[in-house]
Amino acid sequence: MGATRNDLPDNTRKAMIALLNARLADAIDLRLSIKQAHWNVKGPNFIALHELFDQIQARVDTFVDDIAERAVTLAGVAEGTAQVAVKSSTLTPYPVNLTDEKEHLKAVADRIAAFGKNVRAAIDASDEAGDKDTADLFTGVSRQMDKDLWFIEAHL
To answer: For residues 39 and 9, what is the distance between their CA atoms, to the nearest angstrom?
Structure first.
């Protein structure tokens, strides 16, 4: 961990950097899973789902950046390579052979729900550690993921 004038205690910053990197791996995995759905979805609602998946993926991409930058802000290192994401993500691997729109919707919904659950736990952990800013970051992510899950589930 690098030096900083940030007044959060070192042990808090270390714990938050680890937490941020754990959720970063999940967010990178989620982003790529949604892109997989975007590229391969087929069915009567193709264009609507193709565009919806792209919009959600763009929002997740913003969260990837925000989570990574928060880890660096706390004098840590953002661990955002594909290799780290594969090794560290807690999300179920996305099936690469799906094409049916309903199957993609279910797969994306499952992963957004799992990510949302992990993010809500991160809100609590950040708050308990005394890092209100990281808790606030995760709160924003959680709020949007709940909304995106609603968008996906509306098609089911």
So the answer is: 44
Q: Is there a contact between 137 and 66 (Cβ–Cβ < 8 Å)?
A: yes
DSSP the chain: -------S-HHHHHHHHHHHHHHHHHHHHHHHHHHHHHHH-BSTTHHHHHHHHHHHHHHHHHHHHHHHHHHHHTT------HHHHHHH--SPPPPTT--BHHHHHHHHHHHHHHHHHHHHHHHHHHHHHT-HHHHHHHHHHHHHHHHHHHHHHHT-
Is the entire prediction scored with pTM above 0.90?
yes
Instruction: Please give the domain boundaries of the chain with CATH numbers for all domains.
Output: 10-85+97-154 (1.20.1260.10)
Whether 12 contacts 93, CB under 8 Å: no
- Is residue 109 within 8 A of residue 153, CB to CB? The reply is yes
145, 119 contact by CB (below 8 A): yes
Give the model confidence (pLDDT) of 105-141 as tens digits: 999 999 999 999 999 999 999 999 999 999 999 999 9
